[in-house]
Amino acid sequence: MTSTNSPEKKEHNMPAFAAAWPICLGYIAVGTAFGILAGQAGLALYQIALMSCIVFAGSAQFIAVSMISSGASIASIIITTFMVNLRHLLMSSSLSLHVQGENKLLLSLFSYGVTDESFAVNLGKFLGGGWNIKDALVLNQTANATWIASTIIGGYAGAFIPSGAFGIDYALTAMFLCLLVFQLRGIMIVLISAIAGTLSVALSLIVPGNLHVILSSIIAATIGVVVKSLYLRHKINRGDK
Amino acid sequence: MSSGEYLVCIIGMGLVTYIPRWLPLFYLTDKRLPLWLVEWLTFIPACILSALIFPSIIINPDTGTVDFMHPAFLAAIPTFLFALKTRSLGGTVIVGMSLYWLLQHFL
């Protein structure tokens, strides 16, 4: 289990900034689009900025804006946000393996910045070694600052920025594809993640919000653990190692 | 929605977003986790990534149906192969964006 790496290399921050740029590129695209949309829905710039600071969650912010403009109640917006963002519970649990015994204040700050993107990049970095909670925190906050700034710029620039210029709205998908490649170690994980993806498509057609992400991940990971333990038992019974 | 109500709304949204992010990092980081849970959590990242990617490339956002012929899916295959071959995050992002942009224009 990797925890913090001790002080071998201290030329900090630069690697974290470097690791953050694909996230930032995606956030500039998505954040600007959000700002434009929120502006059109009648939110003031300070309201856009506040939401990006306090909530910091892309898809939930989009959904909230569309619910606000359709006159939804505060309670229903908050409940939807909760369901859409519950997947971070899994991501933080997964990250917790790599920041064992860290300072609780740092961990509390770090949790604020756990998003789909920062989770995936930080996890890859933790697995690769030479990465600690401070690097992870710098990465999170760089992404966070980019997100907040982009949403404000979007709200400000409004219709002047063409949406989807240069395929920039595909940046995050491409990044996720590469991060998935990094995760695919061994046939077992390939199969389980294919199950997760297929289930997610099927569930997305029937369950509301982003629940399909968390449901399909839980089901597929559980299948993975069960199959792996059955397989190990089978091997032990056959007498080989 | 008045600006007061808006403030209540985003503070509520902020809380229900922060708590699931914070709980595991606060409570699981000084406990010895059972082996099955560690195993389970090591499967989670690949599962989440697939669960995020698959619907976004397979389901056509305009029609809400499964569609293997739209740019997001067609661009994903060479992008994935590029990532597999080069393992370069930045390169994959650039290649993915360019392919998607081209496909959008020529399809």
Describe this structure in words.
The complex is a heterodimer of chains A (241) and B (107). Chain A has 241 residues and is mostly helical. Chain A has two domains: 14-183, no CATH class; 184-241. Chain A is built from eleven helices and no strands. In chain A, helix 2 runs antiparallel to helix 8 and helix 3 (58-69) packs antiparallel against helix 4 (74-85). The longest helix of chain A has 28 residues, at 211-238. Chain A is globular, with a radius of gyration of 20 Å. Residues 1-10 of chain A have low confidence and may be disordered. Chain B is mainly alpha-helical and 107 residues long. Chain B has one domain. Chain B has four helices and no strands. Chain B has helices spanning 3-27, 35-58, 71-86, 89-106. In chain B, helix 3 packs antiparallel against helix 4. The radius of gyration of chain B is 20 Å and the shape is extended. The N and C termini of chain B lie far apart (42 Å). The mean pLDDT of chain B is 91. At the A-B interface, helix 1, helix 2, helix 3, helix 4 and helix 5 of A face helix 1, helix 2, helix 3 and helix 4 of B.
Outline of this structure?
The complex is a heterodimer of chains A (241) and B (107). Chain A has 241 residues and is an all-alpha fold.
Number of helices of chain B: 4
Helicity range of chain B: over 70%
Number of strands of chain A: 0
Helix and strand sequence of chain B: HHHH
The shape of chain A, in one word, is globular
Strand content of chain A: under 5%
What is the radius of gyration of chain B?
20 Å
What number of structural domains do the residues of chain B give?
1
Structural class designation of chain A? mainly alpha
Helix content of chain A: over 70%
C-alpha termini separation of chain A = 23 Å
H and E string of chain A: HHHHHHHHHHH
How is the quaternary structure best described? heterodimer
Largest sheet of chain A: none
Low-confidence stretches of chain B: none
Distance between the termini of chain B: 42 Å
- Tell how many strands the DSSP assignment of chain B holds: 0
